[in-house]
Amino acid sequence: MKPELYHGHTRRPPFFEGWYYKLVSADESERWAIIPGIFRSRDPDREHCFVQVLNGSTGAAAYHRYPVDSFLASRDEFDVRVGPNRFTDRRVLLDIPDGDIPVSGEVSFGPLLPWPVRLASPGVMGPYTFIPRMECNHGVLSFDHPLEGTLRASGRQVVFTGGRGYMEKDWGASFPEAYIWMQSNHFPGGGSSFFGSIAVIPWLRGAFPGFIAGFHHDGNLHRFATYTRARTTDLQIHDHEVVWSMSDRTYELTVRAERAQAGLLLGPTREDMASRVGESMQAVLHVELRNRKDSTVIFAGAGRNAGLEVQGRLDALLALQTRNSEPDRT
After folding, report:
1. Closest CA to 281 of 158, 182, 175
2. pLDDT tens-digit readout, 255-264
3. How many CA within 13 A on the CB side of residue 294?
4. DSSP 8-state symbol, 324
5. Residue 19: beta bridge partners?
6. pLDDT per 10-residue tile (average), the chain, 330 residues
7. Angle at CA 46, nearest 5°, toward 202 and 12?
8. Which domains are seen in the chain, by residue range?
9. Within a 13 Å sphere around the CA of 220, how many CA atoms are in the beta-carbon half?
10. 242 Cβ neighbours under 8 A, 6+ residues apart
11. How far apart are CA 134 and CA 131, in angstroms?
12. Cβ neighbours of residue 1 under 8 Å, at least 6 residues apart?
């Protein structure tokens, strides 16, 4: 019921857990991602905790590694420490004096806008939350929130006061074999946010293309997910864009993501933090939400400063999606 908390207190390796803080300045010239986490391995030499830093405006990235015993996490509240760095749902406090991107300072957050947690559907994973040993679990801790504070990164001041933030997390044994992830909370007029991910999900002796997506607009969260019986009706992956359409009985949501320069992060496999993950923070998401019953367009707009990852064996994902697609009879 508290997806933001650390889940690894009683988990055996292989296991990873990481939190993703997205920070965008008021003038949108600065886009940063701060990712604290831990990797647990059967090999003691590979166990460690870390803080990844991505300058989304330049693509520069740094992986700051710490001994595993410098990771501390509260059992009762979201309060995580990696060495001298501290991460909560109210602020990030960084003290990284060296490395490729030295960074220090504090950024605090205003009221968060989390994916709702309910008894039968605790968070973005819905009922899949209750399935043990899912390869990768996800949590959306805040679609959008205000920022206040300053970081000193690579010798210069980066002011985030008046900017916007986003917060999510992952935990499990490994990232999926293939996945697409996209997010933006910078749409025209403000107040709208989108998150979505589709991936190869191992299931019994096979796999299926599982997806979750949420568009928060005008005070409402429009959910599209495998567990809500929504369907992906179109998925195209091109060099310059990704097109993804999904629908349920009432709504149709289409996202066209313009791909952009990406920085390289490290992602978890079952053996190590070894997978190279290209993440852009300069993508653009063209989102259209339509009422299927009368074809009314509820929203159409372009989300700026978008996060976008298109990763892994995409041919396997597309093949599963093609096999899974059936004519819409709703």
Report:
1. 182
2. 999 999 999 9
3. 3
4. H
5. 169
6. 94 96 98 98 96 97 97 97 98 96 97 93 89 90 98 97 98 96 97 97 91 97 96 97 98 98 96 93 98 96 98 96 67
7. 50
8. 1-112+145-172 (2.40.370), 174-330 (2.40.370)
9. 7
10. 180, 182, 236, 255, 256, 257, 259, 308, 310
11. 6
12. 117, 119, 122
Residue 42's Cβ-count burial label (10 Å; 0-12, 13-18, 19+) is: exposed
Q: List, for residues 150-195, the tens digit of each pLDDT value.
A: 999 999 999 999 999 999 999 999 999 999 999 999 999 999 999 9
Residue 88, φ and ψ in degrees, nearest 5: -140, -175
- Token representation of residue 140: 């959306």
Handedness of CA 120, 123, 124, 128 (dihedral sign): negative
Q: Which pLDDT does position 121 carry in this prediction?
A: 84
- Block residue for tokens 């602020």: 91
* Burial degree of 197 (CB within 10 A; 0-12, 13-18, 19+): buried
